[in-house]
Amino acid sequence: MSDFSELNQYRKGKVEAKKMEASTKETSDNIIAKWKQKEEELKGLSMSRSQRTKALNERFLIDGLLPIGYHVILYGNAGSGKTSVVLKLLAEMLLDKNNADIKVFFFYVDGQLSMASKFMDYIESIKIDNRYSIVTNGTAESMLNLVEEMLEDHPHPEQLVFVLDTLKHLTPDLNNKGANAKALHRIRKIVSTGATFLSLHHTNKDGENFSGTAEVEQDSDALLKIETTDGQKEHQKISTIKEGGRVRFYFKECSFSFFKGNPESVTRLDDGEQIDIELIKQMNEDKHLIGGIKAFLRLRGKATKLELEDAIKEDDDFDYSVRDIRSVIKRYIDVHWTVKKSGDRNTIHTYKVKE
């Protein structure tokens, strides 16, 4: 009886071992199948043939800033000139004979209507109003609905440019990840047809970073920032567009001069000229002292550093320390004045106004 019991236990053990072996093999097969599935999913995220072709054949509508088929977000402080700069750049783009087939729809949801009206007069005067529409009536939602319907059977979506001013009007809550993702995925679907989309956007409270969640950067093709300071003339502004986050094309930093509230006045500064926004800001702070030094140099023709220091200190209109005067003299060499050094042992620096 004991031998029979042991035999049954042995047989039962073998059966259990086989079951365990089969279960282990099934588990192992499932794990391998899962790995392979995830590998295929990752491979599916690789660049498609059309994406590779697009990247290799980028065509810029605005040099270094806006390539066809991308979603670009340009953000900056209120009053930084986002709307003015973009309005004018798009008009210049349409005047280029290489862009004769391009049409622009500017969804002007956030700006002053008086500025829009004046600019519409301008685009009519240069005869591009049949290809440049400033859309002021309706909501961002209704405008995007029309875009989506239009693209369902449009033969040449690559000829269409859409601008949304501003992005906050498309999402109910910029600080809600889900809301931002939903809005940005709609735009991504639009650019997947070959159309081009430019969103204007605001900075957050610190004035440095973009407003909203990480999806703003992750679900767009480029995040650019516009920084602006006062120019040397009344109401003049100097703006520079630079990288503000991830940029997925060859970007070229550029600067502009314009007068506040006047898009027609926007002028792209020389591409070869390096515009230092921080220097311009500092120059505005030093404007009074710079004017005094230049006035003295024009009166005398030229002067040494010691003569400049004495002249400023003796003038009741100025209240600067010697250290401040010396810093300003040094800071604006080759900007507002030139300097010539004598060749003898006791070097003397002589300054003249740079005309």
Characterize the structure shown.
The strands form three sheets. This protein has a nine-stranded mixed β-sheet. The chain has a three-stranded antiparallel β-sheet with strand order 12-14-13. The protein has helices spanning 2-44, 49-56, 82-95, 113-125, 140-151, 177-191, 215-218, 277-285, 287-300, 305-314, 322-331, and strands at residues 60-62, 66-67, 71-76, 103-108, 132-135, 160-165, 196-202, 222-230, 236-247, 254-259, 262-268, 303-304, 337-341, 349-353. It is extended and about 120 Å long. The termini are far apart. By secondary structure, the protein is an alpha/beta fold. It folds into three domains: 1-46; 52-274, P-loop containing nucleotide triphosphate hydrolases (Rossmann fold), CATH 3.40.50.300; 286-353, Arc Repressor Mutant, subunit A. Strand 8 (222-230) and strand 9 form a beta hairpin. Helices cover 43% and strands 23% of the residues.
Itemize the secondary structure elements and their pairings.
Layout: H1 2-44, H2 49-56, E1 60-62, E2 66-67, E3 71-76, H3 82-95, E4 103-108, H4 113-125, E5 132-135, H5 140-151, E6 160-165, H6 177-191, E7 196-202, H7 215-218, E8 222-230, E9 236-247, E10 254-259, E11 262-268, H8 277-285, H9 287-300, E12 303-304, H10 305-314, H11 322-331, E13 337-341, E14 349-353
Parallel strand pairs: 3-7, 3-8, 4-5, 4-6, 6-7
Antiparallel strand pairs: 1-2, 8-9, 9-10, 10-11, 12-14, 13-14
